[in-house]
Amino acid sequence: VLFVHGLNGTSAIWLPWAKRLLDHNYQSILVPLSGHQMGSDLSRTQKEDWLQNVFEAAERARRCAPGVRVLGVGYSLGGLTIIGALERYPTLHLDRVFLLAPALSPS
């Protein structure tokens, strides 16, 4: 399960979920979005950086566990970033996507 945090958040928000899933033998990857780490300058990052963070995490999951389903869970900006990464990278495949309060506007 790939967990992607929201704007100004960190991957730490997903630790309780990751621990709970591990109790049920599910592996998690907590995706840190560029510019959100302690001491980072968020103003120096671009949307493309975040899309690449998601893509690289998904690719790492596929390499580490071939044949295993990869799920994406995103909160707020994290949800928007997952959708953006799926649009940007045609080879990116997530078996299921769960968006929690995604930063999307109706169109």
Features:
alpha/beta; globular; four-stranded parallel sheet; 4 strands; 107 residues
Question: How would you describe what is shown here?
Answer:
The protein has 107 residues and is α/β, with parallel strands linked by helices. The protein has helices at 15-22, 47-64, 77-88, and strands spanning 2-4, 29-31, 71-75, 96-100. β1 (2-4), α1 and β2 (29-31) form a beta-alpha-beta unit. The longest helix has 18 residues, at 47-64.
Question: Which helices and strands appear, and what pairs or packs with what?
Answer:
Layout: E1 2-4, H1 15-22, E2 29-31, H2 47-64, E3 71-75, H3 77-88, E4 96-100
Parallel strand pairs: 1-2, 1-3, 3-4
Structure described in brief:
The protein has helices spanning 15-22, 47-64, 77-88, and strands at 2-4, 29-31, 71-75, 96-100. The protein has 107 residues and is α/β, with parallel strands linked by helices.
